[in-house]
C-alpha cells in the first residue's frame, strides 16, 4: 500500500488536491478534519493518501475537535494539518489561540467562501482575511499565506509547514473556492529538491529543559510527548518552564516571546511578488485569485497608457507594511483588489498614511472580480 | 512507617512525590475538596499499573479538576474547555505507543465537551477518561452542570434545577466504552483498582469519580463539608455488573457504585491499521514519528 509522499510528475490538478499533495511533500503525516465545501476535497485526498505514507487521517466530530486533534498530534512530534472553510474556521478559533499560546506548529487551510454565516457555500470570496488576523481572542502574531494558483498552493503549503516548524505556531493558508476548485497544470518536483524545515530540537539535560526558553532566533526548542521531558503545556499564561504564572510580568514576557519571534524575523517570513511595479505610478495591491484578475488589468491598463503595476501579497500576515510605506512615498496612488468590502484595503490605507489616494475594487463575494472593473477604476480614479 | 530522626526538620517524602511537580505545590484546590483524593488515587494507579510512565500523558480540559495536568510530573497538557479528548485523540493517533489518561471535570467532559466524549467512546479510542463529578461547575463559582441533581441549587438555578442530570455510566456504555466504573473519592481502594485496570486495558475506558465541592455545591445545598462524605458512605450500594440503565444518582435511594462494563472490541487504531495500513501490522515497520 505504501506509495511515495512526493508524487513527482506533471499533473492537471485542482487547488485542493495540490494543497494536499504539498502537505504530504512537506512531511505532514496527520490530518484531522471535518467536511465542508469547498475544502472537502483536501480531506478526501488526505484520507486516501495519508495511510499510503504511514500517516493517519481522521474525520473528527466537528472542527473544534479537528483543531484540537492536530495540536495533540503535533505534540506527539508529527506534522499535522486541517482544512476548512468559513463556518469551520470560526469554530477553530479558540484552539488556534491555544496553538499560538502553546507555540504548536501546524497548518490550517481556509478555502474561503462567501459569508457571513452559511453564506455562499459553493462560491468564492476573500472575506475571512481579518478573521485570520484577529479571529482568536487576545493579542498575537500569526502567519497567513495566499496562493494564486494550484501550482502555488502546492509550494505555499510546503512553505506553511516550514514556517510553522521554524517559528512554532499555526500557519494559515488563506485560499478561496476559486483556486481550490480550479484545475491547472501542477508540477510536483523531485523529493530531493524540496527543502524541509523541522522544529528546533532540544539538547542537554532533560530535567533542566525549559520548553519556552527561546533559542537564538527567538524560538524555543520543542520536544515531543513520550521523550522523557515531563513537559507541562498549558493555555494559561506561563513562564519559560511552561508553568502557569498569572501575573503581569509573566504575561508581558510571554506575549513578547510569541509576538517578537515573528516581528523580528519579518525579512525571513514575508514574501511578495510584483508585475510591472518598477516604473508604476499606480499600484494595485492584491492577493490570491484577485491577483490574477489584477494582473490582467495591469496589462490592459498599460495598453491604454496607464502606468499601473501590481504588488501581489503572498504573505498576508504579517502584513508587508514596509513595502507599502516605501511605495507610498513614490507613487500616485493605490487600488486594492479583493473579494470583500475592504479588509486588506484598510491595511493599505493605514500604511500609506494619507500620503496618496487609495481606492477599493471589491464586492461581497460569489464570483471573481472582472479585470474590466479594475481597469475602469484605474481610468476613473486617476 | 519510615522512621524520621528527631533532629530532622525535613518533611518525609510522600510516596507519590516522584509523580508530582512539587515545585507547583501548594495546589489551588479548596480545603474539603475531593479532587486531590481522586488525583492521588490516579497517581497511585499509574504507579501500580507498571506501564511505562515516560510514555504516559495526562490531558485535562479547564476547571478545578482540569488543573490536575498541572500537578502531575508526566508529560501533561492543560488544553481548552471541553477539548481534552480530541487533543488526546491527536496525541494517540500520532504516536500509538503513548498511554493516555484524560483527567477532567463533569462540566468539561459532558457539557461543552460532550460531543467529543460520545465520539471517542464510539470509536473506541484507546484512552482512559477519569471524570471528577462534583455535580457542578466548581471553578466558575457553582453553576448548574449536566450532572446537577434535579431541584439542586446552583448560582444559575437559584430556586432549584429544573433539568434532569445525565446518567454518565449509561451514556458511556451506550456510546461504546469498553470499560465503565463509578466510585466515590471515599472508596479510594476500589477507585484506584478501577483506574489501574482501566489504564492497563486497551480501548476507551471511563471512570466516574464522585467528589465533593463543599465550597460551591455543598454550601448552596445545605451540606456541611462532611455531609457529602457521609452520603457517600451511607448511600453507597456496591453492585458490580449493575444494569447501566439503573445508575441514575439518587442520594435518597442510594448511589450504585462498581465496575459495570468490561468488554473487548477492536480500537480505532486496530481497525484503521487493518483496513488502511496493513503493513504496520507486520513487525519492524518504521515509526510514524520519525
Ligand atoms: C470556552 C469556555 N467557556 C467557559 C469557560 C469558563 N469555565 C472555566 S471552568 C468551567 C466549568 C468547569 O466545570 P467542571 O468541568 O465541572 O470542573 P470543576 O471546576 O467542577 O472541577 C467553565 C464554564 C472557559 N474557560 N472556556
Ligand atoms: S471550588 Fe469546589 S471543586 Fe473547585 S477546588 Fe474548591 S471545592 Fe474543589
Ligand atoms: Mg464539576
Describe the overall structure.
The complex is a heterodimer of chains A (382) and B (290). Chain A contains 13 helices and 16 strands. Chain A has 382 residues and is of the alpha/beta class. Chain A is globular. The termini of chain A are far apart. In chain A, helix 3 (63-75) runs parallel beside helix 4 (86-101). Chain A has two domains: 9-193, Thiamin diphosphate (ThDP)-binding fold, Pyr/PP domains (Rossmann fold); 271-381, Rossmann fold (3-Layer(aba) Sandwich). Chain B is of the alpha/beta class. Chain B has a single domain, classed as Rossmann fold, CATH 3.40.50. Chain B is 31% helix and 16% strand. Chain B has an eight-stranded mixed sheet, with helices on both faces. In chain B, helix 6 links the parallel strand 5 (179-184) and strand 6 (204-210). Chain B is globular and about 60 Å long. The termini of chain B are far apart. The relative contact order of chain B is 0.13. The model of chain B has no long low-confidence stretch (mean pLDDT 94). Chains A and B meet through helix 3, helix 4 and strand 10 of A and strand 2, helix 2, helix 4, helix 9 and helix 10 of B. Strand 10 (232-234) of chain A pairs parallel with strand 2 (75-78) of chain B. Magnesium ion binds at residues 63, 105-107, 134, 136-138, 145 of chain B.
Amino acid at each position: 500500500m505504501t506509495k511515495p509522499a512526493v508524487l513527482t510528475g506533471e499533473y492537471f490538478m485542482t487547488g485542493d488536491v495540490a494543497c494536499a499533495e504539498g502537505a504530504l511533500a512537506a512531511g505532514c503525516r496527520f490530518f484531522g478534519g471535518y467536511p465542508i465545501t469547498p475544502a472537502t476535497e483536501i480531506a478526501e485526498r488526505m484520507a486516501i493518501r495519508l495511510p499510503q505514507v504511514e500517516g493517519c487521517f481522521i474525520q473528527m466530530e466537528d472542527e473544534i475537535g479537528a483543531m484540537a486533534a492536530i495540536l495533540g498530534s503535533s505534540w506527539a512530534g508529527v506534522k499535522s494539518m486541517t482544512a476548512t472553510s468559513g463556518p469551520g474556521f470560526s469554530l477553530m478559533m479558540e484552539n488556534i489561540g491555544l496553538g499560538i499560546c502553546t507555540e504548536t506548529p501546524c497548518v490550517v487551510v481556509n478555502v474561503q467562501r462567501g459569508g457571513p454565516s452559511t453564506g455562499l457555500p459553493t462560491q468564492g470570496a476573500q472575506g475571512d482575511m481579518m478573521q485570520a488576523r484577529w479571529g482568536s481572542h487576545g493579542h498575537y502574531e500569526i502567519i497567513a499565506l495566499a496562493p494564486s494558483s494550484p501550482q502555488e498552493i502546492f509550494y505555499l503549503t510546503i512553505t506553511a509547514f516550514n514556517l510553522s516548524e521554524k517559528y512554532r505556531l499555526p500557519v494559515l493558508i488563506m485560499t478561496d473556492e476559486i483556486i481550490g476548485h480550479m484545475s491547472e497544470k501542477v508540477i510536483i518536483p523531485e523529493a530531493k529538491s524540496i527543502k524541509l524545515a523541522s522544529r528546533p530540537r532540544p539538547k542537554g539535560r532533560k530535567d533542566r529543559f525549559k520548553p519556552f526558553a527561546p533559542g537564538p532566533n527567538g524560538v524555543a526548542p520543542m520536544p515531543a510527548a513520550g521523550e522523557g521531558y515531563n513537559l507541562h503545556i498549558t493555555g494559561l499564561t506561563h513562564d519559560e518552564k511552561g508553568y502557569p504564572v498569572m501575573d503581569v510580568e509573566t504575561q508581558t514576557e510571554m506575549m513578547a516571546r510569541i509576538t517578537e519571534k515573528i516581528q523580528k524575523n519579518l525579512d525571513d517570513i514575508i514574501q511578495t511578488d510584483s508585475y510591472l511595479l518598477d516604473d508604476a505610478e499606480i499600484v494595485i495591491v492584491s492577493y490570491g485569485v484577485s491577483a490574477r484578475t489584477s494582473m490582467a488589468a495591469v496589462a490592459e491598463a498599460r495598453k491604454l497608457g496607464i502606468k499601473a503595476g501590481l504588488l501581489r501579497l503572498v504573505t498576508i500576515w504579517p502584513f508587508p507594511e514596509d513595502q507599502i510605506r516605501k511605495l507610498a512615498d513614490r507613487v500616485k496612488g493605490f487600488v486594492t483588489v479583493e473579494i470583500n468590502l475592504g479588509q486588506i484595503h484598510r491595511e493599505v490605507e493605514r500604511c500609506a498614511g494619507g500620503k496618496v489616494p487609495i481606492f477599493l475594487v471589491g464586492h461581497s463575494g460569489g464570483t471573481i472580480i472582472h479585470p474590466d472593473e479594475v481597469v475602469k477604476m484605474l481610468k476613473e480614479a486617476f | 512507617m519510615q522512621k524520621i530522626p528527631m533532629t530532622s526538620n525535613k518533611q518525609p517524602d510522600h510516596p507519590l512525590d516522584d509523580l508530582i511537580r512539587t515545585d507547583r505545590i501548594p495546589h489551588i484546590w479548596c480545603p474539603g475538596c475531593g479532587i486531590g483524593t481522586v488525583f492521588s488515587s490516579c497517581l497511585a494507579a499509574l504507579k501500580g499499573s507498571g506501564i511505562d510512565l515516560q510514555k504516559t500523558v495526562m490531558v485535562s480540559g479547564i476547571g478545578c479538576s482540569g488543573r490536575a495536568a498541572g500537578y502531575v510530573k508526566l508529560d501533561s497538557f492543560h488544553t481548552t474547555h471541553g477539548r481534552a479528548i480530541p487533543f488526546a485523540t491527536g496525541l494517540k493517533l500520532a504516536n500509538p505507543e503513548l498511554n493516555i489518561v484524560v483527567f477532567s471535570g463533569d462540566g468539561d467532559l459532558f457539557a461543552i465537551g460532550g460531543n467529543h466524549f460520545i465520539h471517542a467512546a464510539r470509536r473506541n479510542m484507546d484512552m482512559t477518561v477519569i471524570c471528577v463529578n462534583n455535580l457542578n461547575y466548581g471553578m466558575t463559582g457553582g453553576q448548574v452542570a449536566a450532572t446537577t441533581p434535579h431541584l439542586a441549587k446552583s448560582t444559575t438555578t437559584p430556586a432549584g434545577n429544573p433539568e434532569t442530570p445525565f446518567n454518565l455510566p449509561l451514556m458511556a456504555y451506550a456510546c461504546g466504552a469498553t470499560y465503565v466504573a463509578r466510585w466515590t473519592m471515599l472508596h479510594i481502594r476500589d477507585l484506584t483498582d478501577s483506574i489501574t485496570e482501566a489504564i492497563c486495558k486497551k480501548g476507551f475506558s471511563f471512570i466516574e469519580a464522585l467528589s465533593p465541592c463543599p465550597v460551591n455545591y455543598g454550601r448552596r445545598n445545605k451540606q456541611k463539608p462532611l455531609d457529602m462524605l457521609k452520603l457517600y458512605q451511607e448511600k453507597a450500594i456496591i453492585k458490580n455488573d449493575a444494569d447501566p440503565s439503573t445508575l441514575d444518582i439518587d442520594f435518597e435511594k442510594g448511589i450504585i457504585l462498581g465496575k459495570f462494563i468490561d468488554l473487548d472490541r477492536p480500537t480505532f487504531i486496530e481497525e484503521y491499521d487493518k483496513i488502511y495500513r496493513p503493513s504496520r501490522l507486520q513487525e519492524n515497520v518504521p515509526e510514524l514519528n520519525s
